[in-house]
């Protein structure tokens, strides 16, 4: 089996088609799960997460696979594998804007990799540790910059530059720190120095086809030119950033400002055609961007729309053409908004109440007391002997404890075969003891399992609905949502929002009290 898995792993690397890569990864996972090798299973989940990250730019799915890889790696003796996964999880969280969480991941990685850079290790192990250490330092510097902790970012950048400059083996890592240094100098308003550092980094980034940091570097070179009063040079840089986006269909939050600069420039030049072109491109960029950055998107729109509204306000005041029809329309809109706000408030209160009822249920969960054979129905006794009853009770207890109910597509016939019993006995036991049919019993186990995970482990609140459904063995996203609502009396999306809010309020309260 190990050779077969390695064959599928090799196929993912050499296959030119990303869809085929993913199929090979799924095949490797299916075989690995049949073995008892958690290390191997963790490795193939890590592989699948990396495919989502690098080839699909599907960061939510990547995070879901990394979480699975991490769960399997916890019992592994391969520390390098565990910290590689921790680093990858930090990478995804940093990209999605969860900088404080990512910082903790990168600190863990740094602590591990730095210790492995010294000592009597094989040259390959030393090289991998140094690379892991430098990449973790780089990502930590990025996170500190994005949380505006520039002092810590600068300190890490200087360490990274010093270490990466010692060997030509780490030219890409050095380019990352040169890029960071350039952005840092821009924040300190040293525009010429900033541009020089960025220009040193760009050739290496372009050579390695790292279009993420190439586009960011080009953008900051443009901002430097703009700050130095060289607007035409700046616009050329901003157009270069746009060309990267058009080719790669990739965007990060700070690069949306690129289109703001281009739109303003062509507004000033009264070039309506170009202004419209870049306005359309901004909308296109935002549609891609908002898939991963919903929580940030609202803020960006708020800031951008505020400026548009201010400009509109000025124009309206200049024209001074408010008439009675406009006033009536505005009053009607305000009334409608008030009605909608009231409905929204009532709905929010209802959701909050349902969430607290479910939370109370989760906190007070106790092991159910199973009825004895004497307490089941007479019909049940006519179908089940006491020996069969006890045998099924023990087997279902183990079935629930091991989480085997998560197996996708599980039927009562399959479970009866596994238990070496027949469908009628199993069905009768579940009806008598659990008070429901097999389908409802299985759904309840799955929903209770995922609900508990979401409540106790904030990592699962990052997953999409389909990811949560897959985690508990339900194939359909809609079926999962319907069952969650039926069993928990609240929609999964509403539960996630309330739980996130509760955790965030807990953090704020904890900070205030410290």
Q: Can you describe this structure?
A:
With 514 residues, the chain is an all-alpha fold. It has 24 helices and no strands. The protein has helices at 2-14, 18-32, 38-56, 59-73, 79-96, 99-116, 123-146, 150-164, 171-187, 191-207, 211-227, 231-248, 256-268, 272-292, 294-319, 324-363, 378-383, 386-402, 412-418, 423-434, 438-456, 465-472, 477-488, 492-513. The two termini are 53 Å apart.
Give the amount of beta strand, in percent. under 5%
Taking pLDDT < 50 over at least 5 consecutive residues as the criterion, the unreliable ranges are 294-322, 508-514
The helix-strand sequence is HHHHHHHHHHHHHHHHHHHHHHHH
Helix content: over 70%
Number of DSSP-assigned strands: 0
Mean pLDDT: 84
Largest sheet: none
Strand-pairing-aware structural class: mainly alpha
**Total helical segments:** 24
Work out the oligomeric state of the chains in this entry: single chain
Morphology call: globular
End-to-end distance: 53 Å
From the alpha carbons, calculate the radius of gyration and give it in angstroms.
Answer: 28 Å
Features:
single chain; globular; disordered C terminus; mainly alpha
Briefly say what this structure is:
With 514 residues, this protein is an all-alpha fold.
Provide the fold topology.
Elements: H1 2-14, H2 18-32, H3 38-56, H4 59-73, H5 79-96, H6 99-116, H7 123-146, H8 150-164, H9 171-187, H10 191-207, H11 211-227, H12 231-248, H13 256-268, H14 272-292, H15 294-319, H16 324-363, H17 378-383, H18 386-402, H19 412-418, H20 423-434, H21 438-456, H22 465-472, H23 477-488, H24 492-513
